């Protein structure tokens, strides 16, 4: 027979416990939405603060309506970027770019900074077919320790020629947690690379969340796409 003082008896949660559970549930719902809105609002304000001082005052709507409209700088930035891109695709634009780059290449310090920034911008923003092919598992940093990586391409040139492997050598990017934009470029024999069924986005979420968010929360052993099909 159980008594009220029996530690094994089932006790109903009190009012404070219910309020605490409701608060945590609400926090889980509000936090992602609030942080997303705050981040977008902050980025828009940062772009406005950078762009609007460069815009002539006669083009600023605040001069006519008397209200500081957030996001006007973003609109000016988008219009200006599209116009520059449209001009750069033409013959005159390409000629001006080549002339400007020839001048930059004559400046020792500026040349190094410009070439590095240009290479990063082309890698991140240029619309090409170059991207990670698959998510994979590799044993890194030692045997028996597994890490998520992204298959880049097959190794070429001197790397492929000088590496002593029996088969194909693969270029694998192993990201760090929780920032997947930094990591290590490693080269593995193709037989040591295990390709995964999960998408690149799902693998990135797994890395960013430090293993807390799997592609399929109900059954992490199966990718989400496999359940839908």
Task: Please provide a written account of the structure.
This protein has 229 residues and is of the alpha+beta class. The chain has a domain of 95 residues. It contains 8 helices and 5 strands. A 5-stranded antiparallel sheet has the order 4-3-2-1-5, with helices on one face. Helix 1 crosses helix 3. The radius of gyration is 27 Å and the shape is flat. This is Membrane protein.
Q: Find the structural class using helix and strand composition.
A: alpha+beta
Please compute the radius of gyration using only Cα atoms.
27 Å
Assembly status: single chain
Count of strand segments: 5
Q: How can the largest sheet be summarized? A: 5 strands, antiparallel
Overall form? flat
What proportion strand?
A: 5-15%
Q: Ranges with pLDDT <50 over ≥5 residues?
A: 225-229
Helix content: 40-55%
Going across the biggest sheet, name each strand in turn.
Answer: 4-3-2-1-5
The count of helical stretches stands at 8
N/C terminus separation: 53 Å
């Amino acid at each position: 027979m159980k008594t009220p003082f029996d530690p094994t008896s089932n006790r109903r949660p009190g009012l404070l416990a219910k309020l605490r559970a409701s608060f945590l549930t609400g926090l889980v719902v509000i936090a992602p939405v609030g942080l997303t809105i705050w981040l977008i609002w902050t980025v828009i304000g940062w772009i406005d603060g950078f762009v609007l001082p460069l815009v002539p005052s006669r083009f600023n709507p605040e001069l006519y309506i008397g209200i500081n409209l957030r996001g006007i700088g973003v609109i000016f930035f988008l219009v200006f970027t599209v116009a520059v891109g449209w001009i750069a695709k033409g013959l005159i634009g390409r000629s001006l770019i080549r002339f400007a780059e020839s001048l930059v290449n004559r400046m020792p310090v500026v040349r190094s900074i410009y070439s590095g920034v240009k290479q990063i911008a082309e890698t991140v923003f240029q619309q090409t077919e170059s991207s990670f092919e698959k998510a994979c598992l590799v044993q890194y940093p030692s045997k028996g320790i597994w890490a998520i990586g992204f298959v880049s391409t097959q190794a070429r040139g001197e790397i492929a020629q000088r590496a002593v492997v029996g088969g194909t050598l693969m270029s694998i990017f192993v990201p760090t947690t929780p920032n997947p934009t930094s990591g290590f470029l490693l080269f593995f024999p193709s037989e040591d690379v295990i390709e995964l069924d999960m998408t690149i986005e799902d693998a990135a979420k797994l890395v960013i969340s430090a293993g807390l968010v799997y592609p399929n929360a109900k059954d992490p052993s199966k990718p989400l796409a496999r359940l839908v099909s």
